[in-house]
Specification:
Layout lengths: L2 E3 L5 E5 L2 E4 H21 L10 H27 L1 H6 L14 H19 L3 H25 L14 E3 L10 H23 L8 H17 L19 H22 L2
Parallel strand pairs: 1-4
Antiparallel strand pairs: 2-3
Length: 265
Amino acid sequence: MAININPISPVAFSVLGLDIRWYALAYIAAFVVGYLVFKRLMSRSDSMVHMSKKQLDDLLTAVILGVIIGGRLGYVLFYNLPFFIAHPLEILAVWHGGMSFHGGLIGVITAVFLFGHKQKLNPWALLDLMAVVAPIGLFFGRIANFINMEVMGRTTDVPWGVVFNGDIPVARHPSPLYEAASEGALLFIIMLCLYKFTGLRRHSGALGGIMGMGYAVFRMICEQFRAPDAHIGFLTSWGLTMGQLLSGIMFFAGLAIFVFALRKK
């Protein structure tokens, strides 16, 4: 027996005629909670990163820009380039949805390296701290995906399959919740434990590499339950999706960074 759910409005509430969407609240929650956790970890006596409050605020601004610009451009390039070539103004319409984690990751890495170079800080050490807090953003983002009925799963007969009333009456895997639990909550716990209870943080870049590999593994597993993008479908006859392809590349990139971090002096 599937679970029937009434669709949730993408608009959480309105203020003076301005619609505040769940997606925007998810981003705000992710940045606020991530900022606080980053600040707490940085304040530890064994932290490899030390910044002033102004530097931390500037880093937050750089990361926000990296996430939004990188995530949007990643979606445009990886998932729906022909559409955006035909409708270029839609690239700016981020409120319509459409963000790529892999693109956002590239944007954050770029922002952190530029910030580190400008502030004369070790960008790899910064990325290690970012790797611990990044799953927080993934958690809130996937919850927003579920509310917006985005990137839903494949059809299923499991008891926890979800049917949104008024939509096609077919039970689907609640794949955004799978991703929130694995890429978000579980990956955060893993990264936090590695940061606090191992010496990996002394090898700048190692935690960043592990986070990349961890996300890639969880994403490839969840893609087995997530329906492929309708306008892309499967990339191969045996069921490879775009998310799995990008995550596979990300896994080997993370592995290379991890090995490099352990071997470099």
